[in-house]
Write a structure and sequence with these properties.
The complex is a heterodimer. In chain A, 35% of the residues lie in helices and 11% in strands. Chain A has two domains: 108 residues, Roll (Ubiquitin-like (UB roll)), CATH 3.10.20; 70 residues, [2Fe-2S]-binding domain (DNA polymerase, domain 1, Orthogonal Bundle). Chain A starts with a strand and ends with a helix. Chain A has seven helices and five strands; from the N terminus they run ββαβββαααααα. In chain B, a hairpin with a 2-residue loop joins β21 and β22. In chain B, α10 runs parallel beside α18.
């Protein structure tokens, strides 16, 4: 089966996809985007969270065929996505309808995963939530991090001023085994505060 | 052969600030991890790679009558199907201490999920389907599931022909190891007791549940060897077990650490390493194996479930008189780390208390239950659960405050352990208890605010099961003691290679160790140590591999102490060499080169008075200084096999917790409202990471208190809940705020005075939560985890 969809604003085509393959498998193994993680592959841990037409989903539970013609944002595209949102553009996927997302084909073609320069955020374009996770110490092994970032970014988009209970509710589908969640709470609070201060 | 995609590269971290020890510098891999660029072992990819799949036993204990692989082998896309008969070398077993684990089952399976055959195919689903086509005919045997069935007169031996070094002193061949600790005379001392408290406790089987599944990529090399990229806790221990089974010398098995998604003890034993290498060598193609979560539950050892029998006595003024205890750990089908877990459970069975007269015995069973081994806390966790329950009961009997009772009996520096070993560094047990008790309590009816009541703050949460009716608060305390580093005479060393050179006019240090960074932040700390010792801003962390000497295991709270110590030591040797070069070049220009204490700071050679003598760039010019050296902590001794006496441990780590819970007594639902921790860390090399470790460890302790347990069917010995749907982990909703009070009392024997910190918070968290639930409900609750039925009386 052939599946056409956009990933991080860039049109993608996957060939020879098996009927049972998940979106997660296609992203990781066919598109070279392993940022979405495979911790449980049964929709319990949230490590594979991506946005499908703006909605956070466990990509392990989405059959690849279901994404035909739709927009997917993964952690690899999160910085770009957040930047477009901050610039007032309707970032790809956030507006709900495929193709109407404001990313021109030309822009999409220019998109590429940014090679990190390994300077702890210095010199790398990061989404505010990504920078906050680094600064707050919310990253240990980091396996839960991509899914949490996508989920937390989406929550802050909806609710820029969340209470602690709101944060916990929004992130309750994302397991973390290292941190005890306290630094993740700190990171989300920090990102929200920076957002409201316009930092 | 093209290179493996996702192979780790050097990470260079510059820093605008000094970035040395004591600062909360940020992780060098942080950017990679938040952008999705960090390559974990399951992300590895290679052109033409195949996928490996393991066929595991569907029964716990059986003879294998026959295995038919013909149908699997005939499937399109299948490249190899291997069973025991295909193993290439004389050596067909492996194991951390005892090589009792077959690479693939031979004639018999001893636990549910044991590897029987392996498949390589061009798509993971093809590999799975091929494995399902392998026909294995099992003739089931009776299962051994507990001490009674293991030691019954007619018990089948789990391992028929044991020749390991424990067989001579165990009372039964189905007992892996037994360690008594006898000191003073417990029977005599018991006569002085005004109160005697006996208890029997049960600690459930916990899973490490690291999120990154067991995985890796084996790439065959042109010299007939193999390069394995894998997530593990100890590369060199893996290497020592892998090479003999492949029939290769160790230098033909290259190992590189791929990104590790958590470990917590579950990666100490081998999982897919040998299987991937066997398939790669057989097919001549790179082979990747990635467990799914179901398989992960079968693919690594778990925390030993334990039955603990405790008898304490106390005088009427509250002094402990004696301890008699027996700890029965279920090691499951293979030995794994069971002997060392027994050593810990017995030697730490008293807890952080002064008890002169003890009679302790710990054993680990061989059974047909899942193999158990290392998990954060390693034998000390189970004991802490029991002795802390005992302390509460004793305090109540004596009529003392529970915290004051503990403080009265708390050990301190100079106390003798029950092994006769003096505690020769600070042991601030009473102080930690004082601090934890002094912390302000969260407000009563915390779910209510001026805006009304928030159901999310109540037991049951969004299930909306109560608005406060039937909800009772409880508060509980606990404290624990954990050993740091490998004990009992183990040669627990680490190696570090440090290079210093000038790049673009700036001095740069490169740190190369084989330390497994599993998330704990060892790489952050290594860079900090190099900055402190060598006065450079930029430090490059070389990927961990077997091209450098062993760094020991990332376990036992030991890496910052031991590999950190090795990095410090190597840096000091490099510094000496650099200063020698400086003296040779510039010594005649300034007398301080010969007379003053010289340091490297800010890229310069300075005197301890702060006078700059030379730029490091001028000292080094185009040359580089590189030194690789091993470093050891003070040696330890084995415990005497009859009395348990001996200087077995090198350092201890202490933490105390206070739990505040709210229990819906009608439904048996528990909300942990706050779980505060006070811990002595000796010296916080990276305070942010220290707090992260304490909060993470605390949460794993919370998990085994109220939700986590691998359920093994008592009749079939099959695992009933191998998934994140049925094995419940604490989510962000289940986890409370975790205030942390960090104490820094230096241990003069350790580098920078630091104390290993990773495990201690996992010990006392569980009994504190249990104590709080007991306090709320008045129930005895002798087992953990506590389930709703235990609280509603419907169990």
């Amino acid at each position: 089966m052939r599946v056409n969809f956009t990933v991080n604003g860039r049109p993608q085509e996957a060939d020879d996809v098996w009927e049972g393959e998940s979106l997660l498998y296609v992203l990781r193994e066919r598109m070279g985007l392993p940022g979405s993680k495979n911790a449980c592959e049964q929709g319990e841990c949230g490590s594979c969270t991506v946005r499908l037409d703006g909605v956070p989903v466990c990509s392990c539970l989405v059959a690849a065929g279901q994404v035909q013609g739709r927009d997917v944002v993964t952690v690899e595209g999160l910085a770009e996505f957040a930047q477009q949102r901050a610039e007032g553009g309707c970032a790809s996927g956030a507006c709900g309808t495929a193709g109407a997302a404001g990313t021109t084909l030309d822009e999409a073609r220019r998109w590429q995963a940014k090679g990190a320069d390994s300077q702890t955020g210095e010199g790398v374009e990061l989404a505010p939530i990504q920078q906050a996770f680094i600064d707050a110490g919310a990253v240990q092994c980091g396996f839960c991090t991509p899914g949490l970032l996508v989920a937390a970014d989406e929550m802050l988009e909806r609710n820029p001023n969340p209470s602690d209970a709101d944060i916990r509710e929004a992130l309750s589908g994302n397991l973390c085994r290292c941190t005890g969640y306290e630094k993740i709470m700190d990171a989300v609070r920090l990102a929200a505060a920076r957002q409201s201060e316009g930092v | 052969m093209t290179t493996a995609n996702g192979a780790p590269t050097k990470i260079t971290q510059g820093s605008k600030s000094k970035g040395g020890i004591g600062e909360s510098t940020l992780r060098p891999d942080g950017t990679l991890k938040v952008t999705g660029e960090f390559a974990y072992s399951s992300d590895m990819w290679h052109e033409d790679m195949l996928w490996g799949q393991i066929l595991r036993s569907t029964v716990a204990h059986a003879e294998i009558v026959s295995i038919d692989v013909s149908e699997a082998l005939a499937m399109a896309g299948v490249y190899a199907v291997l069973t025991y008969d295909d193993l290439p070398a004389e050596m067909k077993h492996y194991g951390l201490e005892i090589q009792d684990t077959p690479v693939l089952a031979h004639g018999k399976v001893r636990h549910h999920g044991e590897p029987v055959a392996i498949v390589a195919a061009d798509h993971p689903e093809t590999a799975r389907r091929a494995a399902a086509k392998i026909k294995v005919d099992y003739k089931e045997l009776p299962v051994i599931t507990d001490e009674a069935s293991a030691t019954a007169p007619d018990a089948i031996l789990v391992h028929e022909n044991r020749d390991d070094h424990h067989i001579g002193h165990v009372p039964h061949p189905n007992i892996v190891h037994r360690q008594p600790i006898i000191r003073g005379n417990a029977d005599e001392a018991a006569k002085k007791a005004d109160f005697v408290v006996k208890g029997e406790y049960y600690f459930g089987m916990q899973d490490q549940a690291f999120l990154g599944p067991e995985s890796g990529l084996a790439v065959p090399e042109e010299d007939g060897g193999v390069h394995l990229y894998v997530a593990t806790q100890w590369l060199h221990s893996d290497l020592k077990q892998i090479a003999p089974v492949l029939g290769l010398p160790e230098d033909k098995v290259r190992m590189t650490l791929a990104g590790v998604g958590g470990a917590f003890g579950g990666r100490e034993d081998l999982s897919m390493q040998i299987h991937a290498c066997l398939l790669a060598l057989r097919t001549g193609k790179p082979v990747k194996i990635v467990y799914n979560r179901f398989e992960s539950f079968f693919g690594h050892v778990h925390r030993h479930p334990a039955r603990l029998f405790y008898e304490h006595g106390a005088t009427k003024d509250g002094k402990l008189t004696h301890l008699k205890c027996r700890i029965v750990l279920d090691g499951g089908a293979y030995a794994s780390a069971s002997p060392a877990v027994v050593g810990n459970a017995s030697s730490l069975a008293v807890g952080p208390y002064v008890v002169d007269d003890v009679d302790i015995e710990a054993i680990a069973l061989y059974s047909n239950n899942p193999p158990c081994g290392a998990m954060r806390g390693f034998g000390a966790v189970q004991a802490c659960f029991a002795y802390e329950a005992q302390m509460d009961k004793l305090a109540d009997e004596v009529g003392m405050d529970r915290v004051e009772f503990r403080r009265l009996n708390a050990m301190e520096q100079g106390t003798l352990m029950p092994t006769g070993q003096p505690v020769d560094s600070p042991a601030p047990v009473a102080e930690l208890l004082r601090r934890i008790k002094a912390m302000p309590l969260p407000p009563e009816r915390q779910w209510e605010s001026s805006e009304g009541s928030d159901v999310r703050q109540l037991p049951g949460g969004l299930s909306n099961t109560t608005h406060g009716e039937g909800v009772v608060r409880g508060v509980g305390y606990a404290v624990g003691i954990k050993n740091v580093g490998f004990s009992e005479g183990f040669d627990d060393y680490s190696t570090a290679k440090v290079r210093m050179e000038t790049v673009g006019g700036e001095p740069v240090a490169t740190v190369h160790t084989a330390m497994a960074e599993v998330g704990q932040g060892g790489v952050t700390v290594h860079a900090q140590i190099a900055r402190t010792e060598l006065g450079v801003a930029q430090v490059t962390i070389h990927p961990a591999d077997t091209q450098v000497g062993s760094a020991g295991s990332t376990s036992a709270s030991r890496q910052t102490y031991v590999t950190g110590g090795a990095v410090k030591n190597a840096c000091e040797l490099v510094r000496e060499r650099v200063l020698e070069i400086g003296r040779r070049k510039f010594g005649s220009y300034h007398p301080a080169w010969a007379t003053a204490e010289l340091l490297l700071e800010g890229g310069k050679v300075v005197t301890d008075g702060g006078e700059v003598l030379a730029d490091l760039a001028d000292v080094l010019e185009d040359g580089a200084v590189e030194i690789e050296a091993e470093w050891r902590h003070r040696p330890t001794e084995p415990f005497d096999l009859r009395t348990g006496q001996g200087n077995g441990h090198v350092q201890y780590s202490f933490a105390a917790h206070r739990a505040v819970v709210e229990v819906d007594t009608e439904l048996g639902l528990v909300k942990v409202v706050e779980l505060a921790c006070a811990q002595d860390v000796g010296k916080a090399l990276n305070p942010l990471s220290v707090i992260g470790q304490i909060q993470g460890g605390t949460t794993q302790g919370l998990g085994i208190a109220i939700m986590e347990e691998i359920i093994v069917d008592p009749v079939t010995a099959k695992v009933r809940n191998p998934s994140f749907t049925d094995y419940l982990l604490p989510t962000i909703l289940d986890t409370p705020t975790i205030p942390v009070d960090v104490l820094e009392l230096a241990d003069d024997h350790a580098p920078y005075g630091l104390r290993g910190i990773g495990e201690a918070p996992t010990l006392s968290s569980t009994p504190a939560v249990l104590a709080a639930i007991r306090n709320a409900t008045g129930l005895e609750l002798p087992r953990t985890p506590v389930r709703p039925e235990h609280l509603t009386g419907k169990a």
